[in-house]
Amino acid sequence: xxxxxxxxxxxxxxxxxxxxxxxxxxxxxxxxxxxxxxxxxxxxxxxxxxxxxxxxxxxxxxxxxxxxxxxxxxxxxxxxxxxxxxxxxxxxxxxxxxxxxxxxxxxxxxxxxxxxxxxxxxxxxxxxxxxxxxxxxxxxxxxxxxxxxx
Amino acid sequence: xxxxxxxxxxxxxxxxxxxxxxxxxxxxxxxxxxxxxxxxxxxxxxxxxxxxxxxxxxxxxxxxxxxxxxxxxxxxxxxxxxxxxxxxxxxxxxxxxxxxxxxxxxxxxxxxxxxxxxxxxxxxxxxxxxxxxxxxxxxxxxxxxxxxxxxxxxxxxxxxxxxxxxxxxxxxxxxxxxxxxxxxxxxxxxxxxxxxxxxxxxxxxxxxxxxxxxxxxxxxxxxxxxxxxxxxxxxxxxxxxxxxxxxxxxxxxxxxxxxxxxxxxxxxxxxxxxxxxxxxxxxxxxxxxxxxxxxxxxxxxxxxxxxxxxxxxxxxxxxxxxxxxxxxxxxxxxxxxxxxxxxxxxxxxxxxxxxxxxxxxxxxxxxxxxxxxxxxxxxxxxxxxxxxxxxxxxxxxxxxxxxxxxxxxxxxxxxxxxxxxxxxxxx
Lengths: 150, 427
Known about the structure:
heterodimer; A: 8 helices; 53% helix; B: 4-stranded antiparallel beta sheet; disordered N terminus
């Protein structure tokens, strides 16, 4: 991102204004600073992460080789939010492969967490360890929980 | 007959070298790396990186002729066992490989190489040069062993009466109704113990054995990766990986700090029929007691009742002892003879507290029993103190083997480095 901006600045300085003008970026959103609800969710999510997730997924989100998968820039974390919420609520029994490495340890269901706690911790994980992705809403977690066998 | 002190050697390397030659100490031709392969060792010891295999190098074995066999956890380029041949300097080349299965176990005894996948044990005849005669034709000794995505390593060792001992790890943390789940109770008469959570004994020279023909030699062992046969008292010793997640699953009973320090990683001396008590108990190294597990009604203080053996020695929690070797060589000073080296793979279950381990420990023995305080023997596999604390170690010691000259070999299943530690070698 920084590199692209730097390139843009160089291009502007180089007199290529008319060319670049067509690609002028939209006004940049800075959600973490501008959105107090999101900031509060991240703060609460960090607490849930420390209490529930940190042992297996580690403080840096890097997981444990062969056992517990990393949470850094994987499609499991950055992709479909419903699938991600389902892993937290229902657990994950089968091994998964990420970047050629297999992770085998059983992820236990964390269904005792409230919808708010799940939304908070997933929002935190999707915006930590170098990740950048949209927040997870309570309604999205609630919808996934409704699909679980009771 | 190594009578020079290390300090004297350093002070007069030329003289010492020539004396060693006169004394016929052929091992001094092995050349430690200038930085001792990045390891921190006691005075007088040196180390070299024998080879970089690039595989997940689990256990390894060295034949009497010096051929090195390494078992890979996952097949690499179609090979699950690598063959290495050494130069006189100690540096080795991967000269071949065979066995299209991943696994952990690798052991040499009486002219055979023994290897395990995560559900079977094989053996291969060795010729007079220590080479496998027919790499494509391993004999399937044992098959159909349980494996279920955790504690799947089938570590192996032989006694002196043609018996083969195989670890079959429990595929659970503490036999809960829901594995590793907060508040989930333990299942009474844990059903896992029928086919796992113990050491099974088979014949070392019979093909096609199964659970039906084997014997459950010892039970109540959650997961053993390091094990060895003690020649002094003719007994099996094992290192158990203790249970995880006391705080995660029982936050009202255990703090993060307690969870990082409980339970001990235990060494057990086993006799047939012994029960070490998993999943019903864990060993608390501060209280020095067998404590009833919280899954079975424990509160961190109640002692377990039942006929369970005590550990022979206890080590800090969660450090994952993956290799055990009784040193019988003569290269190292006398205090090491018949003592135990233990490779601690390194912890993950101490988070958010700092991680620990990633080193090889020496445990002194006397008359076949642990005697005296253990000490760190080879340290800094991780690369730095910060990498130990974070668990992001460069290398993770896993397997141990003794070479014919008494060198200690160590495998690393993170990057696949093979180390060799020697004493009184010229630099």
